[in-house]
Structures are given as C-alpha cells and as structure tokens.
TrEMBL record:
<dbReference type="GO" id="GO:0009306">
    <property type="term" value="P:protein secretion"/>
</dbReference>
<dbReference type="InterPro" id="IPR042193">
    <property type="entry name" value="FHIPEP_3"/>
</dbReference>
<dbReference type="Pfam" id="PF00771">
    <property type="entry name" value="FHIPEP"/>
</dbReference>
<dbReference type="GO" id="GO:0044780">
    <property type="term" value="P:bacterial-type flagellum assembly"/>
</dbReference>
<dbReference type="GO" id="GO:0005886">
    <property type="term" value="C:plasma membrane"/>
</dbReference>
<protein>
    <submittedName>
        <fullName>Flagellar biosynthesis protein FlhA</fullName>
    </submittedName>
</protein>
<dbReference type="InterPro" id="IPR042196">
    <property type="entry name" value="FHIPEP_4"/>
</dbReference>
<keyword id="KW-0282">Flagellum</keyword>
<keyword id="KW-0966">Cell projection</keyword>
<dbReference type="InterPro" id="IPR001712">
    <property type="entry name" value="T3SS_FHIPEP"/>
</dbReference>
<keyword id="KW-0969">Cilium</keyword>
C-alpha cells in the first residue's frame, strides 16, 4: 500500500523532470503495484516513467511524427553500465572527475551541433539502468538535454538518430 506521502514524492519527482501528470490512473496504478515491493522513490519513478512511454513519446515527437535523438556509442554506454552500482534497487553512476568532464564535454559539443541545426530539445536515449544517473549529472552541470531511456519510448514510435556521443576512458 502506498501512503499519501509516497504518492506525493513520486509525483514531485515526475514533475521535476517535466513529466505531465495527465494520465493519473496509470501513475497511481503503477505506484500501487511497485510500492508493494519497494518504497524507493527513484525506483518507483523510473517504473512509472516506463509505464508512461506513450505520453513521453508524444511529448517529444516532432510535427512530422519523428523523435530526433542522440545516443551514446557502444563503448561509452558499456563504460557507463560498468560504472553503475545498484543500491536499494536504484543504479548510481560511480564516475571519476575525468569521466564526468569527458561526458559533459562530449555531450555539450554534440548538443550544440544539434541546436545549430534548429532541433530542440536535445534528446539523448540511454539504457534504462543508467538513465537517472546520467540525467542527474546533466542537471548538476546545467546541461539542457532531455535524458530518456529505451523503456520510455513507445514501441511504435518513429525516431531518427542524429548522432552518437563518445567519451574515452583514460584508463584504457
């Protein structure tokens, strides 16, 4: 059973990331389902985001019905997955300062290219396990990008990959 306080904190977390609350039935059902197993707000919020894939997809679909997005290259995504550690059902990215700087610089450069083409917002799609961690880093460094996971894009969506972001691991 989900308390009023838990529901309020999940709604606040969704609003913080600009997720509309218009499908309240799906949100409340999701909270009730997931809250049986955990009270972790971050984990519950990620599960709700996945259930709202249709709403999220509509938010970022252009007038032509296409979502334009960036990805991480395979090596970068693998590095981020390796650097993630699970704690209380939520994965946290354990990056060193150099890796964070490389991630911010590479993403900023690619985002600037996209914005110069007149495409906004800049959307990056990542593995669901690292979405929250990547989004938190981008927010901390005031990077104006939308970070979505594969689970948040409706399976019927049409998308165009505009490029891929690559960082190098200094230890390799």
């Amino acid at each position: 059973m989900a308390s009023i306080g838990l529901i309020q904190r999940v709604l606040k977390a969704l609003l913080h990331e600009k997720i509309p609350l218009k499908d309240m039935l799906t949100i409340l059902e999701g909270i009730a389902d997931v809250a049986e197993y955990t009270k972790n707000i971050d984990f519950i919020s990620e599960q709700i985001r996945a259930r709202l894939s249709r709403v999220i997809t509509q938010m970022y679909t252009g007038d032509d019905g296409v979502i334009r997005l960036l990805t991480f290259d395979t090596n970068t995504e693998q590095l981020l997955l390796q650097k993630s550690q699970e704690q209380d059902g939520v994965r946290n990215l354990m990056l060193n300062v150099g890796e964070i700087n490389a991630l911010i610089q590479a993403t900023s450069a690619k985002a600037a290219e996209i914005l110069q083409k007149g495409i906004s917002p800049v959307i990056i799609i990542v593995d669901p396990q690292i979405r929250r961690g990547v989004a938190e880093i981008f927010e901390r460094f005031s990077l104006d990008v939308v970070t979505l996971s594969h689970a948040e894009i409706d399976s019927s969506a049409t998308f165009e990959v505009l490029g891929s972001i690559s960082i190098t691991n200094e230890n390799e």
